[in-house]
Amino acid sequence: MTKGRSGSKKLGKGDEVTWSSHGNRVEGEVEKEITERTEAAGRTVDASPDDPQYQVRSEKSGRSAVHKPSALKKK
């Protein structure tokens, strides 16, 4: 794991991560890094190269979600 320009952790496609969703710990995989304002996982994501977000897919439900790097923990 490397550090990005803003000091946040840099994740890559295929990295296994965990995050909290509705009080539960969810495991999944990074699908892609988002570095521009776009539609993803059913919502508008306001990301930039200096403030990226990550689209992740839950192992259990198979659904996609988008999170900031600070919400994700690499397994």
From TrEMBL:
This is DUF2945 domain-containing protein. Residues 1-75 are annotated as: Disordered. Residues 14-72 form the Hypervirulence associated protein TUDOR domain. Residues 1-11 have a biased composition (Basic residues). Transmembrane segments: none annotated. InterPro entries: Hva1_TUDOR (IPR021331). It holds the Pfam family Hva1_TUDOR. Residues 24-40 have a biased composition (Basic and acidic residues). It comes from the Bacteria. The lineage of its organism: Bacteria, Bacillati, Actinomycetota, Actinomycetes, Kitasatosporales.
